[in-house]
Amino acid sequence: MIKTIEGGVTAAKGFKASGIHCGIRKNTSKNDLSLIVSEVRASAAAVYTTNLVKGAPLTVTKHHIDDGKAQAIICNSGNANTCNADGIEIAEGMAELVSGELGIPAIDVAVASTGVIGQPLSLEPIKDGIGELAAGLSADGGHEAALGIMTTDTVPKEIAVEFECGGKTCRIGGIAKGSGMIHPNMATMLVFITTDAAVAPDMLQKALSGDIADTFNMISIDGDTSTNDMVIVLANGMAGNAEITTDGDDFTAFMKALNSVTVGLCRMIAGDGEGATKLLECRVSGAGTLDTAKTVAKSVICSSLLKAAMFGADANWGRVLCAIGYSGADVDVNKIDVSFKSVKGEILVCRDGAGVEFSEEKAKEILLEKEIDIIVDLNSGEYSSTAWGCDLTYDYVKINGDYRT
Q1: Which of 259, 268, 315, 339 could make an S-S bridge to 157, C-beta 3.0–4.6 Å?
Q2: Would you place residue 247 in the very low, low, confident or very high pLDDT band (cuts 50, 70, 90)?
Q3: In the prediction, which pLDDT does 397 show?
Q4: Dihedral of CA 74/154/210/7: which sign?
């Protein structure tokens, strides 16, 4: 049984976190530097953006956790440290600062950055703030850390669950940032997950890599894949379960708990898309293959025309069919059913690839809600998939029209 609990990224035993404003961001009321630390070295796994342009922190982190171990994660917001000549030096410098303050090897520190691309990042504000950041480490500090990784996010994203594994009570929790430039092909945005379950590094990587295909890779806000996308998981084993080294019941239990956390974060990220007013969830069933189901779900969620229609509470179901048609998926368009659903009810708008009579007034009532389900049945098989996104609003253009300035 998986139980939702409080605590976010510090819910698991042995983890502390903190977040402060050190001066990277101009707005002094917003945190811009976060730190997550395990009491002991932990198994580490990560996935990274597939964008050929990668932030320097990704290169450094990949090197630092190459041995499958890490003990801390430091992250700044306000500057992506990407496309900078001294980017690697700055990222390594951030790890060295944590090392000097906490007395742990710099090689055991993962580094992340998020914000504007192509702007120089000075190490000075981080150096000035590292003492305060370390002093603020607390088992209750997950929320401040979540605030410190936000950019255009309007709300912090935190989640934690409790589950049984190997006869022990284990916990897993995480924080995420992500609001724009989200169309991942590996993981997404920045996501930091911690667990006190004992999991061998190779199995932790297997769990994470297996999970993201159906979670983070199924989100799209705006079709842009970030240069700094990264998901990191630390497992310190302090729950006391026998280390998971192979497939089996314990690994399955861990995977289910991990998935509950990642799906929760996916929904939070999609619902907080830049300028968004609605969370969209596209659920596809009846596909002939899993790849078909995923391709269709992602294509629907990515459609700018559909996203705009959802913003206007317009039941323009033709845009769903259009997105399916150009997705490249092998489907029989004459078998497709489409419905819209929210807490106000569900309404069928298309059957067998053609429109049906429905109440426009009822449809608008359904689509005016904050969470909208787009339900597609391909009626051609047994496979299904889910993708998440948001509506497209005037504010998205406003936010990105002056993002740098």
Answers
A1: 268
A2: very high
A3: 84
A4: positive
Report the alpha-carbon distance of residue 141 to residue 10 in Å, rounded.
7
Sign of CA dihedral 184, 186, 191, 197: positive
What was the pLDDT predicted at 180? 67
Residues 6+ apart with CB under 8 A from 63: none
Nearest to 388 by CA among 262, 311, 297: 297
Distance of CA 36 to the CA centre of its chain: 17
Q: What is the pLDDT of residues 172-229, one digit of tens each?
A: 999 999 876 667 654 447 999 999 999 999 999 999 999 998 998 888 877 766 677 8
The pLDDT score that the predictor gives to residue 32 is 97
Beta strands in 59-156, from DSSP E residues, in sequence order: 69-79, 109-116
How many Å apart are CA 286 and CA 293, to the nearest integer? 8
How many C-beta neighbours within 10 Å does residue 355 have? 12
Write the single-letter amino acid at 366: I
* Residues belonging to the chain: 405
The 10s digit of each residue's pLDDT in 332-389 is 999 999 999 999 999 999 999 999 999 999 999 999 999 999 999 999 999 999 999 9
Query: Given the DSSP bridges, would you call strands 33-48 and 15-20 parallel, antiparallel or unpaired?
Result: antiparallel
Q: Domain 279-401, CATH 3.10.20.340 — does that match?
A: yes
Looking at per-residue confidence, does 271 or 250 come out higher?
250
What is the pLDDT of the chain when averaged over all its residues?
Answer: 94
- Amino acid identity, position 99: S
DSSP code of residue 57: H
d(CA 105, CA 39): 13
The total of other beta-carbon atoms located within 10 Å of residue 260's CB is 18
Burial class (CB in 10 A: 0-12, 13-18, 19+), 164: middle
pLDDT-wise least confident of 37-41, 113-117, 380-384: 113-117
Catalytic residues: 188
Q: Which fold has domain 3-271?
A: L-amino peptidase D-ALA esterase/amidase (3.60.70)
Structure tokens at 147: 């605030």
Show the 3-state SS of 99-117: HHHHCCCHHHEEEEEEEEC
Neighbouring residues of 180: CB distance < 8 A, sequence distance ≥ 6: 151, 152, 221, 222, 224, 273, 274, 396, 399, 400, 403
Percent with pLDDT over 70 in the chain: 96
Domain boundaries, the chain: 3-271, 279-401
